[in-house]
Amino acid sequence: MLFAFGSFAQNNQNGIITVEGKSSVKLAPEEISFTVNFSVKDENYKQCAEMSVEKIDKIKKLFIKNGIDEELIKTNSFAIHEVQKYDPQLRQPVFEGYEANIPVTIRTQKDYEKNDKIFELIKDNLQSNFNLNFALSEEQMEMVKEKLIQLAVEDAKQKATVIAQSADVQLGKIKSIQYGEPRMIGTFNTNMELMNAEILPMTRNAKADITSVLSPNEIEMRTNIVIAWEI
């Protein structure tokens, strides 16, 4: 009798419908980053480090002198490594010195009135390659999160309603909700993280005015939410 009672209780448990809701929103990036990539070399480690610091200071002063806001100028990283060169006579790598690699970034908004000036200063004064990086601002990311969640929930509800009607059952209370953080669908990688962005490489010999390239592709943000209902 106990076995029969247990089987009856299991067979009368409520069923569950589990549905994944998806959402997608496209946004035009508002943030722009000009990143100058430069390096210095020297046989002496200390001298290489000092030269790199002097180079950073020189670049910062160039922009500040020309009216670029100092708080926008950032040094992303600082790395010094040993350089070796293969010697065909010795048939092995030999020490050649040290090299410091330092990217300096100026992060602005698309409507910053001095973007053209930044472009001109880099192009005309710095013998370095650089990147123009378009990204979503923090305000855009916060704004889109709420909208993505709302759209994903609506999508899940719609799917669950259609399934329940087709199966001739009634949706009950929600049993669980699982939420996925928003992700950016980038040009080069369909699974890029949110803070990544589309990169447009530029050289110091570029002749185009910056205003002609400030039309980046929209960035598509996606998220998903899994909701389970009792039936």
TrEMBL record:
High-level lineage: Bacteria, Pseudomonadati, Bacteroidota, Bacteroidia, Marinilabiliales
Protein name (database record): DUF541 domain-containing protein
Origin: domain of life: Bacteria
Signal sequence, start to end: none
Gene3D superfamilies in the cross-refs: Protein of unknown function (DUF541), domain 1, Protein of unknown function (DUF541), domain 2
InterPro entries assigned to the protein according to its UniProt record, in alphabetical order: 26kDa_periplasmic_antigen, SIMPL/DUF541
